[in-house]
């Protein structure tokens, strides 16, 4: 059994023979735009965006089909050349033989080191890779070689890193033509390429990015010569795994000061030949990256071309990222605690890489989507709450007046871009997520006044919830909704939230559930836009309407008795409950409203009583819940019960008994449970059905759906995927974690824990999951974790473990404790600990379960804060006023007595 081992409290880990597992890659990046992936054999890519790739873009398959890698050769005298990263044809030939070299991978947050031991050569090499957390636009390599044999060894060290130096658009299209743009020259320390132009979707433009590879010995001595082009290095008939320059030795490297143009570039650096005595070691340093000028790149690279400078930046980078991860768990299972360390890190990667830019992520050209903006903020609220308020406010500017939103997110915070080519894109779930995140923010901060802050609205040609175009739209006005007088219109955050959720209430299909349109959270349910409906997200909107009512009640308690809302919205607050069942009338109300705001708005606002609004929202929410309970509760032939969650493009119910077999979808159960649509007894029935039809132990948990047995073209492309892969029946971690969260919220802690524990045990078993620590997007039919690192699953798992499992909750700014830890999760001494940030204060909470009680047996009996018994009317709460009086400069220790 091959398994990684955790090495320390920071969850650094070691894996033996990592190259014997395919598809492994590791992220190394910084917050200044450098995004790289690196495999155990140093394949992978490096880029700063879709149009700025230093190393050629790679998919997951190209990690093992491509011969191009970051390579470092030792041309050993009297022997064949040796690759310190295992990328020679001879090493590849011995990969599954007894002669295979022993390798060890050690990695921590944003750094990787691979050690290779060759008994044949009598050499051991360690290659450490990182991107400086200090922000320089370079990737660094440190190669340490040691003679472990019995004889002195003479060799010439040679760096060989192919540089791509252009847009990913040119990987296939115009690959050769764009190489003709390259202007290459050698300098004292390396190879520089300055393409004359860029060919990509932006058109032909003057290039403004310099690419390069510099290197030195540990004593800062430069290379002695260079191989600046791929063609000269690999030679006729050669390859990156058997370059002619090293094997045939019929190519002479060039000196510094040479220029050439029109070729594929190689960062080929030749160091001085040396003899390594027995037991002796040498270090070589490499910096590859970007600059806006040659001088700028030199400045960035030279900082790290000494052993001391490299060691300093390694320690700085390790400390920087480990300090960023400020939530830590201490349970009876240390492996789980370490696993969660990596999960807590994953949302940071999402903010850097977006949904793309790692080998498994074929989500187009980078960036994040609307849903990601809000779900990633869930983790940010837990780990770094300062600054979140402004981010949330800016994000609201992506909402249109018809309740839909922009789908292309700009590079800057609060920047939204009109859809390319005016393509209509409407995801009916998008209105759900802003309130989820805003509600969490208010619970933790107590900042009810945030609801009354004003924000702009997004404007483009798309109108009437994607049904029509605004032919009068003028892009030059700044993508903002304007009044009839031409002034920029603003509404409160509350108005934005009401618009999203009320328009969804009226936007229904023939069964009086929200129209599925182009997709819901599952983008692969994309083929039912005419007659499809989502019962699942209708339930989610019911939850949101209740949440809005509760927030308004709190506002009223604080003294806000009325609010101003856009005059056009008056239609959406109809008091006639009979219209809720009248599908035709609901559509008319929505259409009339959308037409009023299609081009401009009046700018006039009406005063609305908060008490009236609360009543209106509650009535709508309760109507939805009763409608779903009465119309969508299923009982099948085997006696199982669950909720139908969708209607297809023929207007037919999707779940239940069919000729092809039983059809059940996890999403349908998640939102009916989470929203309170499902009664307590119905939750029990759903659990029983999910355990029977969806749970798959060999895949780590609950499948997203049963096998529908057909390519269901009237619902979505997901059914074209092989069953057990991605959205079609894989264990889709995002929805599985949300299922756990819903169960915890409804009081089913053991069942909620079972979901998380199953996923953890599977992911932590390297033999079957084949991934480094952390949670992937999904687990495939063969048990392999796929689309690792960049997944909303991590934010939801962090949120669920902290707020539900450990019960660390905010209640309008107060710190509330509602633990749901099972007995097996406590350590032998009856304690479980969690470290976290709340109200910008650092806390360590210890739950003391000295009587060894299980989750259904204990409750909070007392609080000790910094050694003193804390007195409060609510035994499970620390008031915000008391929290704010605590010091900002020290950690505060809380003991929660359970009895």
From TrEMBL:
GO function terms (MF aspect): glycosyltransferase activity
What species was this sequence derived from? Answer: Lachnoclostridium phytofermentans
Q: Which CDD domains match?
A: GH94N_LBP_like
Q: Which residues form a coiled coil?
A: none
Phylogenetic placement of the source organism: Bacteria, Bacillati, Bacillota, Clostridia, Lachnospirales
In the record, biological process GO terms are:
carbohydrate metabolic process
- The signal peptide here is none
Record InterPro entries: 6-hairpin_glycosidase_sf, 6hp_glycosidase-like_sf, GH65_N, GH94_catalytic, GH94_Enzymes, Glyco_hydrolase_94_b-supersand
What are the Glycosyl hydrolase 94 supersandwich domain coordinates in residue numbering? 118-304
Where does the Glycosyl hydrolase 94 catalytic domain start and stop, copy by copy?
320-554, 618-805
Q: What is this protein called?
A: Cellobiose phosphorylase
